[in-house]
Amino acid sequence: MPVTDDDTARFGVYFSDAAGSKMSYYLKPDVSLGWSECGTPGQAATRQLTLTVNLTSSAPADAATSLPLYVTANGLFGIAPGIVAVTGNVYLPQGYTLVSAQASSGASFTSAGLQGREVLSYGVNLQPGQTDSISVVVETTSAAPDAEAIMTPTADQSISPVAATTCESVATATLR
């Protein structure tokens, strides 16, 4: 699990195929992070950090009929062929409090604790070409300038398994 330190807040963002298929090959995650404000460098302040996860199915429109049965699982586990079914788990950074969690599909989240951190779980079923987004907002008092989300690697090597952001506050000066 990613470890949060004084300089970097770290999320764990993990995906599992929920259909007993190989459709996760077509899952295209896009993960981003953003601080609500940067504050003064080196000084702790209460602020929020938002994690946004967009999950898109790049499966062909006719995936249910054009892909082999061993790829689609042929509905054996209750998911229609051609659907990318995902169970997602978001591990919040240690020391951060959940403010909100929303999914564009209206999916609900369950919450549990694991080794001193909160874990949010959700599920989504994506039709070919469909995108679902989740947004998780956390809050803490910290001077950390950086944030990272470590995620499950995908079959697409062009998608980095690490998303990162940094605050670049500019010190203010008074000219006389």
Number of domains as seen in the coordinates: 1
Distinct helical segment count: 2
Q: What's the CATH architecture name?
A: Sandwich
DSSP summary, beta strand count: 10
Regarding quaternary structure, how should these chains be classified? single chain
| Integer average pLDDT | 92
The stretches of 5 or more residues where confidence is low (pLDDT under 50) are none
3D shape: elongated
Strand line-up of the largest beta sheet: 6-7-4-1-9-10
Q: Helix proportion of residues, in percent?
A: under 10%
First-last Cα distance: 50 Å
Question: How would you portray this structure in words?
Answer:
The protein is mainly β. It has helices spanning 63-66, 69-72, and strands at residues 8-17, 27-35, 45-57, 84-91, 97-103, 110-114, 117-126, 131-142, 146-151, 162-166. It contains 2 helices and 10 strands.
List strands and helices in order, with pairings.
Blueprint lengths: L7 E10 L9 E9 L9 E13 L5 H4 L2 H4 L11 E8 L5 E7 L6 E5 L2 E10 L4 E12 L3 E6 L10 E5 L10
Parallel strand pairs: 1-9
Antiparallel strand pairs: 1-4, 2-3, 3-8, 4-7, 5-8, 6-7, 9-10
Keywords, please?
mainly beta, single chain, 176 residues, six-stranded mixed β-sheet, elongated, Immunoglobulin-like
